[in-house]
Amino acid sequence: MSIGTLAPPTVTVHEGAARGAERSRTWRKLARNPAAIVGALILLTVIGAAVFAPYVAPQDPARQSLIRRFSPPVWVPGGSTAYLLGTDQVGRDILSRIIHGARISLIVGIAAVLVSLAVGVTLGLLSGFLQGRVDTMIMTVVDVTLSFPQLLLALAFVAALGPSLTTIIVVLGLTGWERYTRVVRAEVLALREKDFVEAARAMGASPTRLLLRHLLPNTFSSIIVMSTLQVAQAILQEAALSFLGVGTGSAYPTWGQMIALGRDFVSVAWWLPTFPGLAILLTVLAINLVGDRLRDALDPRVG
Amino acid sequence: MLIPLVRRVVRLVVVLAGVSLVTFAILHVSGDPVSLMMPEAPEADRVALRQAMGFNEALPVQFARFLANTARGNFGNSFFHREPALPLVLDRMPTTLLLTVLAMGLSLAIALPIGILSAVRRNSVFDHGATVAVFLGTSMPVFWTGIMLILLFAVQLRLLPVSGWESWAALVLPTLTLATFSTPLLLRIVRSSMLEVINLDYVRTARAKGVSEWIVIWHHALVNAALPLVTVAGLQFGLLLGGAVITETVFAVPGVGRLIVGAIRQLDFPIVQAGVFLLALIVVLVNFTVDLLYIYLNPQIRVR
User: Residue A83, class by beta-carbon neighbours within 10 Å (0-12 exposed, 13-18 middle, 19+ buried)?
Assistant: First the structure.
């Protein structure tokens, strides 16, 4: 996900004329913040690594070599410039595996959030707009979802359905939507009472039009901020599932799986679990930094 | 006071039925529970098992039976241990709860003073430092934090045991690990709920009449910040239990989380279902208690 796709909402229906000015103000606020810039740079690096993995990875991530087992990172005595971050228990290059692992993390992170987004926003709109019995029903489902530790539920369902990339995406998506529903519902409840909605209704706008053209666009900024932060959560959840052994079910390297394998060798080769974890930490931190500043930048109440 | 109470009890029952349905779905979501339970068995055995377990009946019938059994605490026998699943899970529950409570206590001990000070000295170096720590803490995978603590305290310094749950020393690293997960979340809530009340009129009035700063903070601000804090802390209990599941796996702590993760690897679904259901039940009951507390503390509460 690049900064471009995180662009602030351009449709503020009731303030259409001001939207150009608003957008440039949002960008200025973002650009003024050093933490957001550092976050964006890290994020761009990770995205670049994921997209161009076969070209930028110095080694084949799957190639094993028994003579090169446990080669330490380059700055430790005995390290080699061919394996900058060292090699693992079967001699595979750790840096190359981390670069390839970025693909799974980003794909799962983004795709799972898209699933959550579709489900959560739809239910939130319906809940806030229709109210009454539909609202009660949807909020009960939210309460039920909130009762389970998300990771535990995801773990059980991925195991039951058989580990695969699609399963992980769908399961993480379907266990992580309730936040969207709660936030969108609350916003719709507040927006319904606003004058512009009243005006649109008085002009004879149909419920569907009201919902899609007037209410939905005004929830965009919270949805964008939430989605950014949720990608970070989904990446952490995917790593945890891989760590617990119900990952993608393929041999393709993932960060969580690298840490799980590295744990057994932590006393002989500290670099095995350390670097993949740093990769997760940096990626998630970068997304959180960008998302947090995005929230401040999109919030008209903050300077 | 009675009507909100009744409403909440009704909601409790409805939510518990929903929780049972989700737990039931774990075994049935794949369409064929038998091939899930014995992937390599010959067809004849599968037919026999399907018959014995009643998997041939309509799903609503099976769910009704599951509900009735769940109400009696019967989740079936563990395939692996060959004894009832529920007692196996219950045996390990105290360990998980101890870990969770220890971590929660440590988190509160850190998050309360730091969060309050952060809010009181907003935008100070201290506040910025706390913000950086919160960002780092929320971005670290729990299991990795645990392994890094093992690397530091068990492998390098040789101060603490790598795993287990036998001595008090063995409790230190798992508790620390889980606390690094929950502290940043709590700290953020403490800080923001304090910020909400600290500039309100009555706090300003208290200051203006010369009440000392610490009494203002403790007596006037914190008491009012506590209400949202309790609610959110209740909501986060589920998150904490999820973290406990991973922490137990990293440190080989003999709790419910490790039992469930092991059962998932062995496709031992009665254990998985009993464990998932019980942990959800705890979350539901914690939130129910928080709700009741809320009614008690705030009689003007608006009931949905």
Answer: buried
Got the DSSP string for B69-91?
HHHTT---B-TTT-SBHHHHHHH
| Least confidently predicted of A262-276, B102-116, B197-211 | B197-211
Q: A183: number of CA atoms within 13 Å, CB side?
A: 19
CB atoms within 10 A of CB A2: 12
Q: Provide the Cα torsion B295, B299, B302, B303; round to 10°.
A: 40
pLDDT digits 0-9 by tens, B33-69 = 887 777 777 888 888 888 887 888 888 999 999 999 9
What is the pLDDT at residue B301? 53
Q: Check CB contact of A18 with chain B, cutoff 8 Å.
A: no
A35-47 core/surface letters (b: 16 or more CB in 10 A; e: else): bbeebbebbeebb
Give the residue from A134, A144, A255, A299 with the most B CB atoms within 10 Å of its CB, the best one to mutate.
A144
Kindly report the nearest CA distance between residue A62 and chain B, in angstroms.
Answer: 23
Spatial distance between the Cα atoms of B66 and B60, rounded to a whole number of angstroms:
10
Q: Look-up: residue for tokens 């393929």?
A: A250
Instruction: Return d(Cα B228, Cα A13) in angstroms, integer.
Output: 34
Give backbone dihedrals phi and psi of A234, rounded to 5 degrees, phi first: -65, -35
Could B136 and A144 be called an inter-chain contact, meaning their C-beta atoms sit closer than 8 Å?
no
Using CB atoms, pick whichever of B138, B141, B235 lies closest to residue A280.
B141
Residues 146-165 of A with CB under 8 A from B: 146-153, 155-157, 159-162
The answer to whether A239 and A254 are in contact (CB under 8 A) is yes
Residue type, B84: P
Question: Is-contact B37 B79, C-beta < 8 A?
Answer: yes
The answer to whether the Cβ–Cβ distance between B18 and A162 falls below 8 Å is no
Residue from A98, A141, A146, A152 whose CB has the most chain B CBs within 10 Å, to mutate:
A152
Evaluate the CA torsion angle B101, B105, B110, B115 in order and state its sign: positive
Does the beta-carbon distance from B238 to A149 stay under 8 Å? yes
DSSP B159: -
Indicate yes or no: CB of A280 within 8 angstroms of CB of B144: yes
CA distances from A71 to A75, A92, A98 (A): 11, 9, 16
Instruction: Say if CB A240 and CB A151 are below 8 A apart.
Output: yes
CA dist B222 and B230 (Å) reads 12
**CB-based contact B280 A148, cutoff 8 Å:** yes
The tokens of A295 are what?
């929230």
- Closest A-chain CA to B148: A274
Nearest CA in chain B to A289: B135
Q: Is the pTM of this model over 0.95?
A: no
Highest mean pLDDT pick, B127-131, B196-200, B288-292: B127-131
- Taking only residues 219 to 238 of chain A, the set having a beta carbon closer than 8 angstroms to any beta carbon of chain B reads 232, 236
Q: Which residues contact B111 (CB under 8 A, 6 or more apart)?
A: B183, B186, B187, B190
Spatial CA neighbour of A108 closest among A257, A219, A218: A257
Tell me the one-letter amino acid at B298. Answer: N
